[in-house]
């Protein structure tokens, strides 16, 4: 990790146009077979496979003030909603079930050099389907901009992999499952693997910073059950155990 406390301003040329491709792969697994029984889920597909946007849509991901590496800020909803409608016409950012802070949208300056800036972000959103709701665990991704030409050179927003990464509500019943691909991408020059940044934090460190913006549970210093058992034995204390049937750091269950 290399962090200097220099601050930069991030802007885009609003006159440019960006072409975005959208993908949804039909679900192949749900715990209660909703992907077989619910027609809306069976036929779930991207609304527009490709769409052109004004660059102002991506300005929504940028901070209104100067920032340093590791700084986080809230993302504006307008541009995000416009992008999500490419996947499905009925996105919702407020979450139909109150999930505390998880309805917000956050971004973090992960890295930059003299030309490029890499913004990592996390968004919680869901889609209203006929008869129910489709709630991904989260949308995460990166936006890389060319600071000199003020243009988008890379963008990817997708539902992360996971054994279970989608929560589903249909006809007053709840299910969960796995969606192998649901994403929006900008296919441009390859700057992800070929660019070196003198000022940066890792993707994992940015992910942790963003998770802290959403869930207070991420502030807990979690340890494994084996470590807890050893500490309890060494300190002569009891262990209070709480069992939960889903993750605390996303909306997949």
Could you list some keywords that capture this structure?
253 residues; alpha+beta; six-stranded antiparallel sheet; 31% strand; flat
Could you describe the 3D structure shown?
This protein is α+β, with helices and mostly antiparallel strands and 253 residues long. It has one domain. 18% of the residues lie in helices and 31% in strands. The protein is built from 6 helices and 15 strands. The two termini are 33 Å apart.
Overall, the morphology is: flat
Largest sheet: 9 strands, antiparallel
* Domain unit count: 1
**Poorly predicted runs of 5 or more residues:** none
Topology:
Blueprint: E1 17-24, E2 29-30, H1 34-37, H2 39-42, E3 50-54, H3 56-59, E4 72-74, H4 77-87, E5 91-92, E6 105-112, E7 116-123, E8 126-129, E9 132-136, E10 139-146, E11 151-158, E12 166-170, E13 173-178, E14 182-186, E15 199-200, H5 203-214, H6 225-235
Antiparallel strand pairs: 1-3, 1-14, 2-13, 4-6, 5-8, 6-7, 6-15, 7-10, 8-9, 9-12, 10-11, 11-14, 12-13
């Amino acid at each position: 990790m290399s962090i200097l406390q220099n601050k930069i301003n991030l802007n885009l040329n609003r006159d440019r146009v960006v072409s975005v491709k959208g993908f949804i792969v039909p679900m192949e697994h749900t715990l209660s077979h909703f992907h077989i029984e619910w027609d809306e889920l069976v036929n779930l597909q991207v609304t527009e496979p490709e769409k052109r946007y004004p660059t102002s849509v991506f300005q929504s991901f940028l901070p209104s003030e100067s920032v340093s590496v590791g700084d986080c800020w809230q993302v504006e909803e307008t541009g995000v909603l416009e992008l999500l409608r490419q996947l499905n016409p009925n996105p919702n950012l407020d979450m139909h079930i109150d999930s505390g802070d998880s309805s917000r949208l956050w971004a973090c300056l992960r890295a930059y050099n003299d030309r490029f800036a890499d913004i990592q972000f996390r968004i919680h959103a869901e889609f209203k389907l006929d008869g129910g709701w489709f709630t991904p665990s989260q949308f995460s991704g990166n936006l890389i901009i060319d600071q000199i030409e003020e243009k988008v050179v890379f963008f990817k927003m997708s539902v992360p992999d996971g054994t279970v990464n989608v929560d589903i509500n249909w006809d007053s019943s709840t299910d969960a499952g796995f969606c192998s691909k649901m994403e929006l991408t900008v296919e441009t020059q390859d700057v992800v693997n070929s660019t070196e940044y003198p000022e940066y934090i890792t993707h994992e460190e940015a992910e942790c910073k963003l998770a802290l913006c959403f869930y207070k549970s991420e502030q807990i210093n979690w340890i494994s059950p084996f470590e807890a058992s050893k500490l309890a034995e060494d300190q002569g204390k009891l262990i209070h155990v709480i069992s939960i049937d889903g993750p605390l750091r996303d909306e997949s269950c």
